[in-house]
Write a structure and sequence with these properties.
252 residues; mainly beta; Pnp Oxidase, Chain A; 4-stranded antiparallel sheet; 15 strands; elongated
């Protein structure tokens, strides 16, 4: 039987409750161009000193570690939250914004930014005096909330507008989050494709070391994390402390 393999598959993750060990609904995190498990076992050698040969006669396991890495090229709000170790905040309702301070003063050629994106019905005042769009200022991009100043403004400059509902993700506010990760893999050499699953019970993912903001080709980002031992499973021989591989198609 042919035992060659070439794997592809889908990776899912779910937040894990650190107290109960249970995880929530799985999230499809999109296309992964690379996913790896790295397993290391650090040992200490004991050398005998009686024979004169200085041979190693025993090894003591000092540490066992599993590391997980994945490269994704789909940008989704949940992925962004994991990338930046942040939190998806509740959607802020849209509504009217009145007399929002946006600058102490401004010179012609400066840019002003509204406090909220996706603004409509934008009006500005300079020291409580209404300004004229097209004469004193120009809305460059209402989606970004950017305004170009056309004439000097002594200030204070305030804005009134209507904002749309807004979703936002904070950055570096979610330390120590734990995830359950499930890999639904396919051996694409076998026909029909053979299925293999991998469960990693408890992973702490580090924020991305680099989240590129300018691209000349398809963008991607790498997530890495450490698989921690799961106290709810480590004594169960059917699961083990870190992870298990599921021979779904009986092909291994």
């Amino acid at each position: 039987m042919n035992k060659l393999f070439s794997l592809q598959g889908q990776v899912y993750m779910a937040r894990r409750d650190p107290d109960t060990g249970l995880h929530g609904a799985l999230l499809d995190i999109g296309n992964a161009t690379k996913a790896t498990l790295g397993m290391t076992r650090e040992k200490i050698d004991h050398k005998e000193s009686t024979s004169g040969n200085r041979t190693v006669d025993h090894q003591l396991t000092k540490e066992q570690k599993i590391e997980f890495a994945i490269t994704l090229d789909h940008l989704k709000q949940e992925n962004i939250r994991v990338i930046v170790a942040g939190e998806n905040r509740p959607t802020v309702a849209g509504g009217a914004i009145v007399d929002e301070f946006i600058a102490g003063s401004a010179l012609a050629g400066d840019f002003l930014k509204l406090g909220s994106p996706n603004a409509t019905l934008i009006t500005l005042e300079n020291n409580n005096v209404a300004l004229a769009a097209g004469t004193n200022y120009e809305v460059v991009d209402a989606a970004f909330g950017l305004i170009r100043v056309l004439t000097d403004m002594a200030g204070p400059v305030t804005a009134s507008y209507t904002r749309a509902a807004l979703k936002a993700t904070t950055v570096m506010t979610d330390e120590g989050a734990e995830y359950f990760i499930y890999y639904a893999g396919l051996n694409t050499i076998a026909k029909p494709y053979k299925k293999i699953g991998i469960e990693i019970y408890r992973v702490q993912i580090e924020p991305a070391k680099a989240f590129d903001l300018i691209h000349e080709e398809y963008g991607s980002f790498e997530l890495t994390g450490a698989a921690l031992s799961d106290p709810n499973r480590e004594d169960d021989p059917d699961f083990g402390a870190f992870a298990r591989i599921l021979d779904i198609s009986s092909s291994l």
